[in-house]
Amino acid sequence: MKRVLFLVENAPVPDDRRVWNEARTLRQAGYGVSIICPRREGARPVEHVEGISIYRFPLPSLAGVGGHLLEYGLALPMMFVLTWVVFFKEGFDVIHVANPPDFLYAIARPFKWLSRKFVFDQHDVVPETCEVRWSGLRRRLTLALARAAERGSFRHADVVIAPNGSVRSLATGRGRVDPSRTFVVRNAIRRGQFQGRPRAELRRGKRYLLCYSGVIGPEDGLDVLVRAIHHIVVDGHRRDIHMVVIGDGDCFAEVVALRDRLGLQETIEFTGWIQDDRLIADYLATADLCLVPDPKNPVNDFCSMNKIVEYLAMGKPVVAFDLAEAQETAQDAGVSVHSSGEPERDARAFGDQVIQLLDAPATRERMGEAGRRRFDEVLAWDHQRDALLRAYETLLAAPAVAPVASVVPSPLAEEGRGGGFF
Fold first, then answer.
1. Do residues 120 and 161 lie in contact, with contact meaning Cβ atoms separated by under 8 Å?
2. Distance (Å, rounded) from C-alpha 327 to C-alpha 337?
3. Residue 333 CA to chain centroid, in angstroms?
4. pLDDT in the model for residue 408
5. Segment 156-200, tens digit of pLDDT
6. What is the pLDDT at residue 66?
């Protein structure tokens, strides 16, 4: 039996749905599976779930460039030690690394000398994140590190897995990975994973329910969403809506404070993070519209967002800005709002589109039906499972990519965009 070890630094498992779906799929296909990941509060250091061994390490989540460097400086040695523990205790034939960060290939590299293979599962575009999030010296520093780390991951990978075609093009383009060794496995949920029912009380007495479900971070646009709701309620004189924001993140307190300053306490409800998928599904089943306020930038253009897949699975129409991969994911189930790059103007445009759809029930129904079809026929994990297994068939049939000993040139000398893990 072939064995696979997953390395995950930025999210616990099984909370990370993408990694957990991949791990369960491989286990069901007859692979032995182990996972190394951070430990959330209350979780056991070592656990066996559905035949999968999970090894967890304690790790704080720290903000800022210095915080991230400290976090990664702590994580890397702990993950390296645990990798050797798994190697001697259970063994593995493949190391499957999920980014960010991109430099986890450094853990896989010595095992390639022991004939183990390396899969780089590129969840995020790290260099682009650095470009968007930072400026000045911090941007130059993080961008240099991110480009070098991404390049190292591409060079050493036997197979690269991407969440969409745009990210795959980075591997075959700037990563110079052979297209035959790159595969698209989309972010997805399983059919039947969300089983919700409409619940009138979730509307809080209002005619319409709007929903956002996801992370509340610096690139997620919740400030624009709050201002869009203010535009709908104050400028549009609409008192018939209730907005629910499901999720948590670094900007949670800041966005709640903005809501309070704008006097929208009775209109916008923040639930915090909900662990119960059934409750999330009930909110989405009740919703009339689901919203994606993520602003247009080089990071979000590349993102395949879990929340959109969940919205479509529940048959809900989607309003989003004109992001390349958001449009590709939603297709006829979504309406795109042109982003001007000016937050106040974008908030008004977003709010106007929401009002227009609320007043067009037949259009919402058609969009919802299109979304459910797209999920069933293309986006459900059933379809992604086949792509993952094809990637592993290719991985195990081909000779391993030799470890690279050459010195990587300075990324500061390169032209073009890059990404970041900070």
1. yes
2. 10
3. 20
4. 37
5. 999 999 999 999 999 999 999 999 999 999 999 998 888 899 999
6. 78
Say what angle helices 343-358 and 222-230 make with each other, to 10 degrees.
60
- DSSP one-letter code for 333: G
CA geometry: angle at 143 spanning 138 and 144, to 5°? Answer: 105
Residue 313 burial class via C-beta count within 10 angstroms: exposed 0-12, middle 13-18, buried 19 and up: buried
Ranges under pLDDT 70 in the chain: 62, 403-422
Assign a CATH topology to domain 3-188+389-408.
Answer: Rossmann fold (3.40.50)
Cα 171 from Cα 319, distance rounded (Å): 30
Q: How many helices (H) and strands (E) does the chain have?
A: 15, 14
Structure confidence at residue 40 (pLDDT): 87
pLDDT of residue 70: 86
pLDDT of residue 404: 53
**Does domain 200-377 fall into CATH 3.30.420.40?**
no
Q: CB of 30 within 8 A of CB of 11? A: no
Q: Cα separation of 130 and 144, whole Å?
A: 9
Residue with tokens 């948590």: 248
Query: Which residue spans of the chain are classified as CATH 3.40.50.2000?
Result: 3-188+389-408, 200-377
Rounded distance between C-alpha atoms, residue 43 and residue 11, angstroms: 13
Sort residue 61 into left (φ over 0), alpha (ψ -120 to 50) or beta.
beta
Cβ atoms 285, 314 nearer than 8 A: yes
Greatest Cα pair distance, the chain, in angstroms, is 67
Provide the pLDDT for residue 411.
Answer: 31
DSSP string, 221-235: -HHHHHHHHHIIIII
pLDDT tens digits along 233-261: 999 999 999 999 999 988 999 999 999 99
Does residue 166 contact residue 358 with C-beta atoms inside 8 Å?
no
